[in-house]
Design goal:
By secondary structure, this protein is mainly β. It is built from 4 helices and 26 strands.
Length: 316
């Protein structure tokens, strides 16, 4: 969220108001982040396709390796990696995993996978022992791709410690909350208008996103593809606000957004491969939201949806 002249800002604000989503524009220059540590090379070399790295309250770290169908646990000093969940189709193992989330004070975590094309969510303790799990109805279907990475089925989830929130736009709502027995508790969040309502597959792809637990109560939701938009919901699932992310860094990306997409046939069904604009997102304890783009920039938003100090971050 780089500097913008006043006339440009006025124009963006007017445009955003016209489409019903306030624009989030910052006059701050990006801050460049530098590394302050990392996993040693001899340990990192064990991972094939690490898609998540999260630390527990005890300092231990967890690495979700999608290609290896494995979850690793690392000690606080990151000096080694131990496989605690490994490949397999049976309960307590992973096959075709797509999402991981660590939550709660006890180091428990959830993983979504798809053995035999059936979507499954499993809950594990800090040592990788299965506690609970359930299957979702229907078959996994790819929607959003980034290079060779295809998010099929459950591409992201949030774990409250007692329930799991999953983005399922095909249900007619953005987020469905499930109890750990698999019982749907509620669905909230209306699908955004995309302009592709006549092409259901594209319309759903444009409503794929990342649900996150807001540490001050309620939830964030970050749309992954199309126009980058964030929403905040309260604990009841009521929309608090919506913001459209804009900035000079994003201008070249949005200028080349496609209106048609290549399709791939999966199980006899043609699926549009819509590349995302957002790579990932995370909620910080202070209520700030970090949104990392497919370009090497991360935008930081405060709890009220405004640009936070250092709001445009260049990870270098």
């Amino acid at each position: 969220m780089r500097a913008c002249r006043l006339t440009r800002r006025q124009w963006l604000t007017t445009l955003a108001a016209a489409i019903g989503s306030p624009a989030l524009v910052s006059a701050r220059s990006p801050e460049t982040l530098v590394s302050v540590g990392g996993v040693p090379a001899h340990v990192a070399g064990e991972f094939e396709e690490p898609l998540a790295f999260q630390r527990g309250v005890d300092g231990a770290a967890y690495v979700f390796d999608r290609r290896a169908h494995t979850v690793y646990r690392l000690p606080p000093d990151l000096s080694s990696a131990t496989k605690i969940v490994t490949i397999g189709f049976e309960d307590g193992r992973l096959l075709g995993p797509s999402a991981f989330e660590l939550g709660g004070q006890d180091g428990w975590f959830v993983v979504a996978d798809a053995p035999n094309g059936r979507e499954r969510v499993q809950l594990f303790d800090r040592n990788g022992a299965r506690i609970a799990g359930f299957d979702l109805p229907g078959k996994a279907a790819p929607r959003v791709s980034l290079g060779t990475l295809v998010l099929n089925g459950v591409g992201s989830l949030a774990f409250t410690g007692r329930s799991v929130l999953i983005n399922q736009p095909e249900t007619g709502g953005l987020v469905t909350e499930y109890g750990m027995s698999g019982t749907p508790l509620r669905t909230f969040g209306y699908l955004r208008t995309t302009g592709f309502d006549r092409d259901r597959a594209v319309h759903l792809a444009m409503n794929v996103g990342i649900p996150l637990i807001h540490p001050q109560g309620g939830f964030w939701f970050v749309f992954v593809a199309g126009i980058p938009v964030i929403r905040r919901y309260d604990a009841r699932g009521t929309l608090v606000f919506e913001r459209r992310l804009q900035g000079r860094e994003l201008d070249p990306v949005m200028a080349v957004q496609a209106t048609t997409w290549p399709r791939r046939t999966v199980d006899g069904e043609e699926i549009p491969l819509v590349p995302p604009v957002v790579r990932t997102a995370a909620a910080r304890p202070n209520g700030h939201l970090w949104v990392s783009l497919v370009i090497p920039y991360t935008y930081v938003v405060d709890a009220e949806g405004d640009a936070a100090p250092g709001g445009g971050v260049d990870p270098g």
